[in-house]
Amino acid sequence: MESVLESVFVPCRNAKFGCTKKVCYGKESTHEKECTFYQCSCPTLDCNYTGSYNDIYSHFVDDHRHEPKSVTFFCGGSVDVQMNIASDTILVLQESKKRLLFVLQCFNEPLGLYVTVKCIAPSTLELEKLAYCLYYSMDGQTLTYKSPEVKRVLEVSSKTPQDNFMFVPDSLLHDEFLEMKISIGLKGIGARIPIAFMKKKPRTKGRRAREWDMSMLRKEA
Questions:
Q1: Structural domain tally of the chain?
Q2: Which domain holds residue 187?
């Protein structure tokens, strides 16, 4: 019976998207680790493009690379990012050497801000394991988050993350603008913040944080 099954070949589940590979019955999971025809959605909020993983990076570069809500970086290095959290929730990070797209997402909740990073790629695909590090400093206080691993998703989610995120308390936010350092690299090697940046003079509170502090003082009085 086993030899009969081994002689049966079935099409890849992504055949309707262009994959022509036929695999031995029962060995589909082996092929799925290398199939690049999984459908991924463009991370740009106002774009409805959906295409294979093979094409998603080229689409973004051709159609969105000059937009202000994207930043180019290299794995193993670090980059400064700025976002207006009052109007923006997503910043796309382009890694040109590995042709990967990452999404920095901010979720503004009543008590503070949830910040997370995800990679636009199938979770089954065998890729190098990556991790990321976030660094934020305000009013003499420093927040650093080192992720266990960058999660891979086929499309951006609007749900507040339950894990793998950095939380910035509302009292440490600088008005509506978020400025932080991010590093993405090989897991256990590249996701590090440069020492020179760690010594950078911390910023002071903005109007939003000062108003929050004053309201707390009035409540205590």
A1: 2
A2: 66-211
